[in-house]
Write a structure and sequence with these properties.
By secondary structure, the protein is mainly α. Helices cover about 75% and strands about 0% of the residues. Helix 1 (about 1-40) packs antiparallel against helix 2.
Length: about 190
């Protein structure tokens, strides 16, 4: 049951990462459009800058949970790999607990701020006068997804005999599809 829940969670984070990738593609298109119209037509598109700022927030908090779940983030493996397995495990558990707490606090604080934005009707002071809740609502959502990923990683550090080896397998598994492979040691 737990493994089925983790598999479903993985699919949701994959979907979020696909949306983030779509936003990156869209952002590259509208920035290219802005540059070309500025250069050739002397016609600025001030909306492109604002839209890029909003998209960057969404890209970050949509993509980060999948990247972390797949262990495809930046790591200092050189240091971790030379440590004894018991210290690797202890360090992994400590990092997961601290990061989980940080993500929960970030989700809580940004949820409070988002509710205040909504209740007060605060608008973005930009060209696009949209409610501030729209660009920033993804922060508490993404933070909770990240917190959940740290719990999944904590489970790995507690249950696996060599969690770092399992993470290495996970990072290389599913390169084509983005989904983990059961042979990677994590279901």
């Amino acid at each position: 049951m737990l493994n089925a829940g983790i598999a479903m969670f993985e699919r949701v984070t994959l979907f979020m990462a696909i949306v983030a990738a779509g936003l990156i593609l869209g952002m590259s298109c509208w920035i290219t459009y802005d540059v070309l119209t500025r250069y050739f037509l002397d016609w600025a598109s001030p909306w492109a800058f604002d839209l890029s700022e909003y998209a960057l927030i969404w890209i970050t908090f949509l993509g980060a949970p999948w990247v972390l779940l797949q262990d495809r983030h930046v790591r200092i493996e050189l240091l971790v790999d030379v440590l004894p397995k018991s210290l690797q495990r202890a360090l992994g558990v400590a990092v997961c607990l601290i990061a989980f707490a940080a993500c929960v606090v970030l989700a809580w604080k940004t949820s409070v701020a988002a509710l205040q934005y909504y209740d007060r009707g605060i608008m973005m002071p930009r060209i696009w006068r949209i409610p501030r809740i729209y660009p920033y609502s993804i922060i508490p959502i993404g933070s909770m997804f990240l917190a959940t990923v740290f719990l999944v990683r904590l489970r790995l550090y507690v249950s696996e005999t060599d969690p770092e080896a399992a993470l290495h397998k996970r990072a290389s598994a599913g390169q084509e599809t983005g989904l983990s492979d059961k042979s990677a040691g994590i279901e």
